[in-house]
Amino acid sequence: MRRYIHTSILAGAVLLAGCGKEQYLDLTYDANYWGGISTTFDGQEIPDLPKKQTAALLKVCQQKPDKMRLPDRYVQHEGFDLYFLPPSVQGREFQHVRFLSDEKKDYLACQPIRHADYAVHQIKRSDYPFVDWSNQPLKAKSTDVRFKPVPKEVTDQQKQENEESKDTKGLGRYLFPSYQLSLPPEGQFVLFMKDKNKDKEQTLFETTESRVGSELNLAFRVIPNSGLQHTSIELMTSGDRIGIPSVIQDHVMGQSYQIQRKQLPATLSMGQTVPFATVWKKEGGKIVQETSLYMRLNQTYKKPENYKYGFLDASPTTYVGYIHDSPKQLVDNDFKFISAIPDMAQELKETDVMEPQGTKLKQKKLTLIRKGKSQTFELFERKRAKKLEIYVVKPGSKKGAKLSGTTSEALSEVLNQ
Known about the structure:
about 425 residues; six-stranded antiparallel beta sheet; globular
């Protein structure tokens, strides 16, 4: 069972560089702490990606990229979703990996969940025998987004959910009509919104992963919250590409909403932007907020603006630490948790490396984690009359780093719990 032990390790001053100092902190993507799935072109997910393949993908994703944008024109091969397994106070860690080709080269594109942009690495096909390079989508004659009637099975499902929500009063209800779009295999499709009198746009959904004939369903839904005293208007995306529900407006008691759906063209062409709806918040018969929603089709990938991931708290970026016996124990949620260790990380960035003294603490390991990267150390403890020394040592190394007295004492409190 997991145990949280909060220590009082205080943030300290940055150590100055000195003679004999070296970098002992080296966090990397460790495949022991990552899982993965392969997403095939028919929309099926193949779970439990082998550790060897996961390690090969992570190895490339932590290298310096060859370019910071996707090729202008490319075909897609397989895609993989990698996810960090241990629980983290820093939010969900995730890597989206795609194999691409243009007319001359092959690429692996990595997209960490904390960034909306891709890092692109040029690769050799022979290094990735587990990728089906022959499974390439066909080029479509049209590169436009096409608007289609919403299939009956989709509207029937939405109506059924509306009926079911009458009993629970918490699921919300769909607002008809809905939309259906057929996406092209090229370009980047983006949904975004802007409030009146504000220049800043906020991305609600984006994809560059469409196949020929990929379908995207859009629907508005009203969600009651806080005992029906508060409601939200959401935009739902479903189909071949599923996005996180996006809140368009929040309303409190006494406020109402109105949605105006725009007349859409037959197609959305490359480089074109069109409005598709406006949502008004009203209070006392007056409009107090006006939000317009748009669709855009970019010819090449552009980093989405103000893209908020609904399942990620991206603000904490400090180092966190865990005391455990094995990688499996950490993944299985059985550990002692150190709440804050800025001093330790800073010490290891600039430290004297020496032969560890004292006794090796068997079955006791320390793993530092930051944004999905980790580093595991073995621990040595030396108790003296009025002083405690703890050394952290990289597995297989004969030398390690001695922690400061304050850090050693605080870490010892966790070890002895």
